[in-house]
Task: structure prediction
Amino acid sequence: MTQFKYKTQKEKYDFISKQHGGYYRHNFIDHAYLYNLYFPPNAVFTTLKENIHDIVLNYPMAQDALAELIGTIIDQPAERIVVGNGAAEIIKILSGHLAKKIIIPVPSFNEYANAAPEGGVVEFPLEFPSFQLDVDKYANEAIKVGADIAVVVTPNNPTSLLVPKADLIRLTQKLEKHNCMLVIDESFLDFAENKETISLEKEIHNYPNMAILKSMSKAYGICGLRIGYILTANSTFSDSVRKGIHIWNINGFAEEFLRILPAFKQEFNDSCKKVISDRDEFYRGLCAIKGMTIFKPDANFIFCRLPDNALNGPEVVERLFIEHNIYIKDSNGKTQPDADRYIRIASRTREENSNLIEALVDVMYSKSSSNE
Result:
């Protein structure tokens, strides 16, 4: 067994807070990362195990065949799809290589800005304190700065708030006249109500300057398999993204998962409904905490503002971990006002969510820990 260098819970926290995964090795409750706990079903793992020799010993398929597999899942032509080693690979291509200037509403997923070269990104502040996106102001700013790619994450991370479909259509139409692609990140849309009617995937052919990016890790609970895709009816844009992908960017386990996934459509839909139900109960429980501002979530996580007389976000995150072995995220370091007052909490099982609420109330006003 691997021996880790931390000896106390405080040292363990200091170690974990610098990591970007591998949490399952360290025995704590992960309310930080955002994924579906109820998928995949055991039958998926059984199939992967039964085929492990072929998967390990042979080259996986390349891009065209992978796009066909995704196309079967989302009912889209393969030529509109580019498959990435997680959405992060595609974000790196978009921000780091394709965009001359990319604009991003903030706070948002940091990787869009982190992947851009110095001077290549413009951050557009969301309305405060509602954190809503004013798409008309956003379009005007994108045009003003000469952005050639504009990003909208919906539901947004970390706010868990949805951007209305009509707003996105108006935005893409405004940007089209200025040769700006709108990239809509729908990675968390499966946890929103009426996801079929609010997604723009089925209407992508109507908007030549629109692309939809999706990480499959979140909704399908497969963070370790690393699968994401971008969908667009703009062949020039898809070709440009495809040129940034190397020939075998997806491993055999991810390929096999895509191959068998259509057989589990009902299980997937049921799992998303369970996530939504658990999240909604979690939201109601958090709303009962006096002084907390809780944003009504559309994704599988909840954005909160701590009371002014409570500890700040980084302090609460540390106390939760040291005293209760629970890990959440604060917004310190995000581009937003009062960043150190905000936290983001992933919804897990009902029991774990209930335990989190009790622990949060316990640590919010504590000044010291006896477990350090």
In short: The chain has a mean pLDDT of 96. The domain at 42-263 is CATH 3.40.640.10 (Aspartate Aminotransferase; domain 2). The radius of gyration is 21 Å. The CA atoms of residues 58 and 252 lie 8 Å apart.
